[in-house]
Amino acid sequence: MADSSDASPRLANRVLGRIASPRDLAGVRRALEAVAELSSLTNKQQGIPLDLISNLDPCPDVVDLISQSIVDDPPNSLSDGGVIRPGFSDELDGLLESVKEAREWLAGLEQRAREETGIKNLKVGFNKVFGYYLEVTRSNLDAVPEEYIRKQTLVNSERYITPELKEIETQILNAEERQTETENRIFGEVCLQVAARTPALLETARSVGRLDVAAALAEVATRNRYVRPELTDDDALEIIEGRHPVVEHYVRDEPFVANDLCLNSDTRILIITGPNMAGKSVYLRQNALIVLMAQMGAFVPAQQARLGLVDRIFTRIGAQDELASGHSTFMVEMVETANILNNATSRSLLILDEIGRGTSTYDGMSIAWAVVEYLHNHPERRALTLFATHYHELTELADHMPAVANVNLDVAEDAGQVVFLHKVVQGGADRSYGIHVAQLAGVPRPVTLRAEELLQELESGEFRPGTPPAESHQPLLFAEEHPVVDSLREMDVSGMTPLEAINKLYELQRQAERPPKP
Which of 1, 222, 453, 455 has fewest C-beta within 10 Å? Predict the structure, then answer.
């Protein structure tokens, strides 16, 4: 099956375009041999759809032609020679035999010339200027036969030719030239015959590709407990315990948490809230992938799925700018949002993540609110929508719009620590837990402590952004000297018992966890 990947349209089109190399033809042969084996295997299997294997033509005539005409391991370039298999062309075989005989005569020339002349150090050589020659040292010039024709004089030797030697040379050169021409012509003829079968080769390549995709999807579905989705004509999406087909393989510390989705004529827009790292983006992507996989004919990672056909999946995910075109992150976001709002239909699926985050809080929240209203109220744009946001105010839309519902990613708090449960539950989130995420990311403790103070003041109304805080509210990130330092300086370590020292250290540790007073 692996070798059949060579039976690609690329190879067939190279043959058709008369640019195929000898190795390309050998690749076609190997691929078709693999296709024959594949066809034999599929014929023994039950339940394989006929449209996957009906056009799986191993083209035995092409295999026979290439096998008979091209050597098993040809050179990449036709100019290297040795491409056509011996026995395929009588004309080429005759030329090869002529060259072989001439070279054998040359191979024995040196020994014969030595015996005839008595010159023991006579040599036969070749260069591109004079061709073949007989070289004799100056000390043996008296023994040179009269029929030898002097061709070149060197310091210590003379080079000669003979009429017979030149005749053999001409015979070899002409035969080699004719051999190259004949081999090129025969290779071109073989390519023409293979090119005549290009339609069958291309259809076979497509069939192999479809079968390869189907086999891969079947293997993935079997290994990962995918189920066959039910496709319907309505516009509802009902997914029970759906999973992300990629992320679930990378979760190491704990099992992947599966989640449900239900969108229908009564609930068309889902407002998804919850803290960062809780799983909103994974939830968005997994549902989009499940819909995409189902409509491409694949089983899906879920316990059960009933899906209405969608015409398109629109996504607005991630933050990026386009510096070359002068577009800011927010501009890119708005361009993509505009495209969605102008082209979505009631049969579309929209995946919107953090619309409005690229601008000020009030502007962003207003845009996000207006987008939801537009999608809810427009008669042609009432698409099924997953809308993730940190603007908790948007959860109020469910109270005013019947087709809007709220869900959130559940979080548990234990002793001041946040545990992300990654479970989608009904209702909106009341907190973003951004400061806890900052702590997990390693933001310095004085910064997160000050952030908690400001958050409490913002939530209570004591402090509003844009107004200068009172002097007491100035963030004191670095005190001139922490009280713990004074306590350490005053300690008489040499006069303390080990138990007293340990108790004092615990006391200083508790004191250090409190921010210093300004």
Answer: 222
To 10 degrees, what angle do helices 60-69 and 22-43 make? Answer: 140
Task: Write the burial class of residue 206 (CB in 10 Å: 0-12 exposed, 13-18 middle, 19+ buried).
Answer: middle
Q: For residues 140 and 121, is the Cβ–Cβ distance under 8 A?
A: yes
| Residue 28, domain member (yes or no) | yes
**Percent of the chain surpassing pLDDT 70:** 88
pTM: 0.67
Residue 283 structure tokens: 């939830």
On whether both 136 and 45 belong to a single domain, the answer is no
* % of the chain with per-residue pLDDT over 90: 34
Condensed to tens digits (0 to 9), the pLDDT of residues 395-410 reads: 999 999 999 999 999 8
For the chain, the residue count is: 518
Domain co-membership, 208 together with 315:
no
In-domain check, residue 447: no
Stated as kind and residue range, the H or E segment containing 511 is helix 498-512
Tell me the CA end-to-end span of the chain in Å, nearest whole number: 74
214 and 248 share one domain: no
Identify the CATH number of the domain in which residue 121 sits: 1.10.1420.10
pLDDT digits (tens, 9 = 90+) for 79-102: 888 889 988 988 888 888 888 888
Contact in structure between 197 and 62 (CB atoms under 8 Å): yes
- Per DSSP bridges, beta strands 131-137 and 157-161 are antiparallel
Q: Are 113 and 143 part of one and the same domain?
A: yes
Asked whether residue 332 falls in the same domain as residue 401, the answer is yes
**Per-residue pLDDT tens over the stretch 157-203:** 999 988 888 888 888 787 778 888 888 899 999 999 999 998 989 88
Per DSSP, the three-state class of 188 is: helix
Q: Beta strand pairing status for 157-161 and 149-153?
A: antiparallel
Give which of 135, 165, 171 is closest to 153, Cα–Cα.
135
Spatial separation of the C-alpha atoms in residues 186 and 178, rounded to whole Å: 12
Asked if residue 139 lies in contact with residue 126, where contact means CB atoms within 8 angstroms, the answer is: no
Contact in structure between 425 and 407 (CB atoms under 8 Å):
yes
Same domain, 487 and 404: no
Residue that the structure tokens 């290009």 belong to? 198
SS3 state of residue 24: helix
What are the backbone dihedrals phi and psi of residue 407, each rounded to the nearest 5 degrees, phi first?
Answer: -135, 160
In sequence order, the 6+-apart residues with CB closer than 8 A to the CB of 170 are none
> 424 with 283: CB under 8 angstroms?
yes
Query: What is the pLDDT, as a whole number, of residue 300?
Result: 96
Average pLDDT over residues 479-506: 74
Distance CA(239)–CA(377), nearest Å, equals 25
Distance from C-alpha of 291 to C-alpha of 310, rounded to nearest angstrom = 8
Q: What is the DSSP string of 68-102?
A: HHB-SS--SSGGG---BPTTS-HHHHHHHHHHHHH
Rounded CA Rg of the chain:
41
Beta partners for residue 270, in sequence order:
386, 405
Residue 247 pLDDT > 80: yes
Hey, what amino acid is at 280?
K
Q: Is position 446 within any domain?
A: no
